[in-house]
Amino acid sequence: MEPAALLLAACLCCLLLAAAQRHRLRHRHPQGRLPPGPAPLPLLGNLLQLSTRRPLQALMQLREKYGPVFTVHLGPRRVVVLCGHEAVREALVDHAEEFSGRGALAIIDRNFNGFGVALANGERWKQLRRFSLTVLRNFGMGKRSIEARIREEAQFLLQALRDTREQPFDPTYFLSRTVSNVISAVVFGSRFDYADGTFLELLRLVNQSFVELSTPWAQLYDMFSGVLRYLPGRHNRLYRLIEELKGFVAARVAANRASLDPAAPRDFIDCFLIQGDKESQNPASEFNSTNLVLTALNLFFAGTETVSSTLRFGFLFLMKHPQVEEKVHEEIERVIGRHRAPASEDRVNMPYTEAVIHEIQRLTDIVPLGMPHAVTRDTLFRGYLLPKGTDVFPVLGSVLRDPAYFSRPEEFDPGRFLDADGRFKRNDAFVPFSLGKRICLGEALARMELFLYFTTVLQSFSLRPRVPPAQLDVSPRLSGFGNVPPRYELSLVPR
Ligand code: HEM
Ligand SMILES: *[C@@H]1O[C@H](CO)[C@@H](O)[C@H](O)[C@H]1NC(C)=O
Ligand SMILES: *[C@@H]1O[C@H](CO)[C@@H](O)[C@H](O)[C@H]1NC(C)=O
């Protein structure tokens, strides 16, 4: 626990008292029988047991003591934590309906207020989720049409990479521009030029938001939002970043509205506007501008940072393990050759590459604590009674490193996803996209992108780190809501 944070928390005691009292009244429930956990201090909860710099590790230590299902108090906020594959699957799959609620994510709830597919609940969430999935599929998610888009975009990336002429560079923006253009084409109807100033500004906002989401400040805010929201401090940066992003999306919505042709929807925004017009007689319709702007922002944000951060971590893992990179090159050479671009149907013939991508996603662990869930009604779970509305963290990082499913879980070993004959072997605890009714809405798109980008880059280039592989540090720069990859440079040598 950082001294500064502690001091701050102590100073806030009086204010917290009021907040905690309100919280208790709201959440009191006579029948609640919650899992065991460390005794909370008044107001501070279990702040002293929880590092805000490495929240995953702190929770893992509590798991040692209390078992896979326990209760912690994040300040005045009570959360049930699920660790390991069995507990997470039992909740999100076997009790899918009960655990399908979205819990509080205080640091961004200020911007979203329960609107937009990713943070909505109840009937609103059901409608937005069904609609978003349908539109993404209509625009080709998981199908050939989106594949063509990704392949085209991957060629733009290759051109930009060739222009680095074997000089070292930071891959961040190369990867986020290209990945973002895939989801931009779906949400906004067109890709951006790589030099477009607005686009670069947008990506800077997304990049910074992901960083801010993962700082110790954000973790602290999640605990003490009742008070911190009224105070100046770094947590306000994220609020402003997201408001700027909202402004950008709102301007696109206005432009779409002005040129809308109901017979020829160009993108997600058009489809949403058309649906809203259909329901214009219904005052309770969820298809209004609030949900449109925030759902489009959810898709754009989730579709940009997750995939590009995974690629950035991935290239780092490959440079750290050159023998693995070499085997991927060999498989590409053998299955695809040099004269045509990779296609998603190559995937079934490339078990080694598939295994490497799985291992990269497993260790990248992009959302280590999972997105917060909440139970939608009083829920009996393993003999405990979770009152309706209880926040639940399905700790995905603990599943992706569950030693019962992955031996020596900290090691980068693609071989764990292969059988004795070199065929791809799935593993039930591979859950980077989560499980159950809230499972990542973009999984099919993300998987296709990861395969096509990795193979396209590695078909044309070998990766060269700036320091010897043994000295490469692959630990995240920040680990909080997300795992943020470390900064690094590499150079690319044409093959
Ligand atoms: C490597 C890539 C990706 C990873 C690892 C990933 C992972 C996740 C995870 C862990 C969740 C939370 C699930 C839960 O609440 O239990 C999630 C939700 C979500 N993801 Fe992804 N994601 C990725 C890419 C994408 C892409 C490309 C899109 C865009 C289409 C997307 C859109 C969403 C949305 C909209 C949600 C919220 C779903 C809901 O609340 O119902 N994701 N993702
Ligand atoms: C974006 O993220 C990368 C890596 O985390 C970092 O090097 C870069 O400075 C960030 N850009 C901005 C504008 O924050
Ligand atoms: C959109 O609909 C919701 C639910 O009916 C409502 O709470 C919200 O204020 C509406 N937003 C606008 C801009 O009308």
Structure description:
The protein is of the alpha+beta class. 52% of the residues lie in helices and 8% in strands. The protein has 17 helices and 11 strands. It has helices spanning 3-11, 13-27, 55-66, 84-94, 106-112, 122-138, 144-162, 172-188, 197-213, 216-228, 235-258, 268-278, 289-320, 322-335, 351-364, 396-400, 443-460, and strands at 69-74, 77-82, 101-102, 373-374, 379-381, 384-386, 391-394, 461-465, 478-479, 483-484, 490-494. The chain has a 5-stranded mixed beta sheet with strand order 1-2-7-4-3. A hairpin with a 2-residue loop joins strand 5 (379-381) and strand 6. The longest helix has 32 residues, at 289-320. The radius of gyration is 23 Å and the shape is globular. Mean pLDDT is 91; it is low at 13-30. The structure holds protoporphyrin IX containing FE and 2-acetamido-2-deoxy-beta-D-glucopyranose (NAG) (2 copies). Protoporphyrin IX containing FE binds at residues 102, 117-118, 129, 183, 298-299, 302-303, 306-307, 310, 366-367, 370-371, 396, 432-434, 438-442, 445-446.
